Amino acid sequence: MMKDDSKKIQQAVALSFDGKSAPKITATGKDLVAEEMILIAKEAGIHIHQDPHLSEFLQLLELGDEVPKELYLLIAELIAFVYMLDGKFPEQWDNLHQKIVAQA
């Protein structure tokens, strides 16, 4: 019997990040709950990263759990990317592009 992939389970995981400690799981959901989480996030202008494998792993964690160290770097890169999309950079990055060009 062939597996029907057209009925994939929608899932979502919400993370919070205070900039001081590892990101924490703030909500998880599947099917209708996941769809509602995604809709609310989109309406609020929250960036959404779609990665089924990462979501499956994060679904295994409990609410309030910090993201494990093994995944922290991946999550940190995603958060940094979202900040850059929003035009936000650390203060130390002021004129960083000029410093790089000057050294070239």
Shape: globular
- Strand percentage lies at 5-15%
End-to-end separation in angstroms reads: 60 Å
Please state the structural category: alpha+beta
Sheet having the most strands: 2 strands, antiparallel
Read across the widest sheet, the strand sequence of neighbours is 1-2
Number of domains: 1
Cα-based radius of gyration, to the nearest Å:
17 Å
CATH architecture label? 3-Layer(aba) Sandwich
H/E series: EEHHHH
User: Would you identify the regions where 5 or more consecutive residues have pLDDT less than 50?
Assistant: 99-104
Report on this structure:
The protein has a two-stranded antiparallel sheet with strand order 1-2. It is globular. The chain is of the alpha+beta class and 104 residues long. Helices cover 43% and strands 12% of the residues. The chain has a single domain, classed as secretion proteins EscU (name from scop), CATH 3.40.1690. The N and C termini lie far apart (60 Å). This is Flagellar biosynthetic protein FlhB.
List keywords for this structure.
disordered C terminus, two-stranded antiparallel sheet, alpha+beta, globular, single chain, 104 residues, name from scop
Ordered list of secondary-structure elements with their pairings:
Layout: E1 11-16, E2 24-30, H1 32-43, H2 52-59, H3 69-85, H4 96-103
Antiparallel strand pairs: 1-2
Compact description:
Belongs to the type III secretion exporter family. It comes from Shewanella frigidimarina (strain NCIMB 400). With 104 residues, the chain is an alpha+beta fold.
